[in-house]
Amino acid sequence: MSMTATSLTPALILRELAKMSVSEVEGVMGKLQVITAVKKGALKPTEARLLKVINATLPATERLNYRKLTTKRKNGTLTPVEHRELLRLSDEVETLHARRMQSVVKLAALRKVTVPEMMKRLGLPRLPPVHV
């Protein structure tokens, strides 16, 4: 069923959200917070673009597939075809993470705070210390 903007109602949106997984709903909530902040004028468009990159994830079907494949890898039941797919998905996850961190650095600079402080404000996990 195709929905146009005029056929969407808050009740319909909430019904559709109720069908989603917790992680999908959390992703939508993060995006709604950004939209709300921009509309209230509390967030500049540049910051909104950075937050969009920071909150980006794999599509739900790929996240589920990634989890299944990592479980199979841990159990030692991964086929060669599945292994190639897991490598492809892992590359996508790493690319998303690299883009996320670049955006965190840029947002921290815009807000004149340190990267660890920005990560704390965004509720992102701390990076482990690097030992050289």
Report on the structure:
With 132 residues, the protein is mainly α. Helices cover 71% and strands 0% of the residues. The protein contains 6 helices and no strands. The chain has helices at residues 10-18, 22-40, 45-54, 60-75, 80-111, 115-122. Helix 4 packs across helix 5 and helix 5 packs across helix 6 (115-122). The longest helix has 32 residues, at 80-111. The model has no long low-confidence stretch (mean pLDDT 86).
How many extended strands? 0
- The global form is flat
Q: How much helical structure, as a percent, in the residues?
A: over 70%
State the secondary-structure class. Answer: mainly alpha
Largest sheet properties: none
Low-confidence stretches: none
Mean pLDDT level: 86
Gap between N and C termini: 55 Å
Number of helices: 6
Strand content: under 5%
Radius of gyration: 18 Å
- Oligomeric state of shown chains: single chain
Helix-strand string: HHHHHH
Layout of helices and strands:
Blueprint: H1 10-18, H2 22-40, H3 45-54, H4 60-75, H5 80-111, H6 115-122
Helix pairs in contact: 2-3, 3-5, 4-5, 5-6
